[in-house]
Amino acid sequence: MRFVPYDQLNSSPNIIVDGAATSGTVLALSHWPKSGTPAKLKRDTSAEIVFAYFDSPDFHVHVEAVSNNHFDEDGLVGIFALTNPAIAEKHRELLMDAANAGDFGFYKLRDAARIVFAISAYADSNLSPLDKQLFALPYPQMAGRLYEHLLEVLPGLLTDLRDYKHLWEAEDAKLSASEELIENGDITIEEQPHVDLAVIRIPEDLPSKPVHRFTQTRLAECHPFALHNRTNCSRLLILQGQHIQFQYRYESWVQLVSRRPPPRVDLNDLARELNQEETSGGHWVFDGVEQITPRLHLEGRTRTSLSPEDIKRRLERHLTTGLPAWNPYD
Length: 330
What we know:
Layout: E1 2-3, E2 14-17, E3 25-29, H1 46-54, E4 65-67, H2 73-83, H3 85-90, H4 92-104, H5 110-122, H6 139-159, H7 165-183, E5 188-192, E6 197-201, E7 209-213, E8 216-220, H8 224-228, E9 235-240, E10 243-248, H9 268-275, E11 283-286, E12 295-299, H10 308-321
Parallel strand pairs: 1-4, 2-3, 2-4, 6-9
Antiparallel strand pairs: 5-6, 7-8, 9-10, 10-12, 11-12
Helix pairs in contact: 1-2, 1-4, 2-4, 2-6, 4-5, 5-6, 5-7
């Protein structure tokens, strides 16, 4: 089986890993919403689904092409497994852990996190050792080229990770620093199990730094891997003085199998409610339940005029009484 860029598939028979099916898709191996993946193969990550496919000969199909419509770690691991099954089987545990780290931000093996950081560095135009012209391409072409390059790099990441230390060591140090802040109690995590909410309190003077999620660069005061490794709650309320934001984790966007997070609630009504009392000059916005990790956050200002504890109470009320607004399951 060989990788074919998504925009070059046309109608040729294919397997899609982690993305949206095309007219020629014979089998989807994806945890994406409404993916159509056979129920017996469903797992938390698309990479795990691929390994379940290996273990289930009754589902095997005979096609040459495998592809995905976006580039990320879970997709890369799944496609690598289909195109390099012998190597993938040898490193199954590490690869599945890297897929979890890339998609859900938690890991068991530290090397899995480091592999994710290295892959993210390759996909970051500011850090990548690849030709910078790649990042000027239209996204479908860029994603295809990234797959082609990283499918060749991944075997080295699995066996000689220290050779790539210059790509992962800086973010690895940020993760260690965040984990230390949690260990020391400088960052606290208080879980509200009845609404699957983790309330995270971060020191006001802690600066934000670049980190990666889904191979994309973001700013965060605490590395998300450090948070996600400490709580399974699918809803996060982050309080840093008067700087406040809420986020749904990716787990509630996909078809999770190991557990079912509570359905997402549309928080546009809460945003309107907060805007009626907000006097900072900022404007509360909810990204929408259809986004992969949507936030409720203040735009135009960094600090809200409202009481953090009042926002927390209102949020808990809306999460408790709001109607389900997103269902990824087939």
